[in-house]
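Worked example 2:
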Amino acid sequence: MLSKMSPLDGIPFLDLIAPHVELEEDMVAVVRQALRTAGFIGGPMVEDLEREFAKFCEVPYCVGVSSGTDALRFALMAAGVNPGDTVVTVPNTFIATTEAISQVGARPEFVDIVPRTYNLDPAKLREYLETGCEREQRTGKLLSRRTHTPVTAIVPVHLYGQMAEMDPILELAQDYGLMVVEDACQAHGAEYFSTRENRWRKAGSLGRAAAFSFYPGKNLGACGEGGAVTTHDEGIARQVRKLRDHGQAQKYYHDTEGYNGRLDAIQAGMLTVKLRRLSAWNAQRREVAARYNEGFQSLHGVLTIPYEPSWAKSIYHLYVIRVQDRNELRDHLSHAHIGTGIHYPIPLHLQKAYAALGYTEGSFPVSEKAASEILSLPMYPQLGSEAQRQVRAQIGEFVEVTTVRAAPWRSTAVGA
């Protein structure tokens, strides 16, 4: 549900109208500027966004591209992932993560997630590298035991707006000679406290490169498609600029084959307008999450709320709970006109698209169990406390009914 609704009519899962009404005049001015200058592809508006978003992510380089999928694909290619390589990531993510890997010509292999954060488990990554890989005697390359192909990169996914535990991931990458490319498509402004550096680091600033999506529903969303690559490496930024524009650094002089992956100037201009509000919107999301957390305290043991470690500052792209009767709860909320989502119902290793990888049910039990229990509740900066109270009341009513149904001799109600 994307339309704005009052609590009396219903509570949408996502409200894409309120922020655009708030910024309507500034966004119309962007369109007017493009019409009056005919600046539709590239140019000052794209360059302004790249400069401002690089500053926001605390990196020297940002390259705007046409989507988050292109951002990850171009980042992997520019970082040096080659056809035939193996790239390690998680099964609990959107398929764009693995599409980008496959479209480079590489092969994804999976490592399970941490139960509480749903992000890549560093201990499972270590286990994979120690037991699922071997060194080729002749070259010293790290090879996957499953496929005997070289393992060259790790793609940690900063899921739901919270960063993966990057210090141990980066240490393992360094020990095994692997690249790290962050999938930060849901993490615009999320932070991680690095004990190695004794400071907070922004999403998109820790890996060799990082990919962001500006799909409309993201914390920083375009009015269409868009994405960006961030990096500290000038060579990677230069290569991504070529890849997004048919392999040319100069018009009609093509160093390589590339793609049509450019970011529209109008989208870039609108994103720059929104970027000025992003920190405030992220702070509002954290306030919404805090109200949810407080409201759900009495349901502890029945419902699991998001876990935010001391080393993380989540920007709550999604507010994801866990409950055993997930589908029944979703139906109950739907009947009460409360929108929800499931991110994601089937782990990638069990998707038909990846049957050829040879994984089976039980290969990644943490991801599989999470996929059957997670439910995303309404979450956006403008979500009011009264709407949240209604969400809490409906969940409390559901828990009370199901508790009585399961144990009819018990009459103790769970307060709404």
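The chain has a mean pLDDT of 95. The chain has twelve helices and 16 strands.
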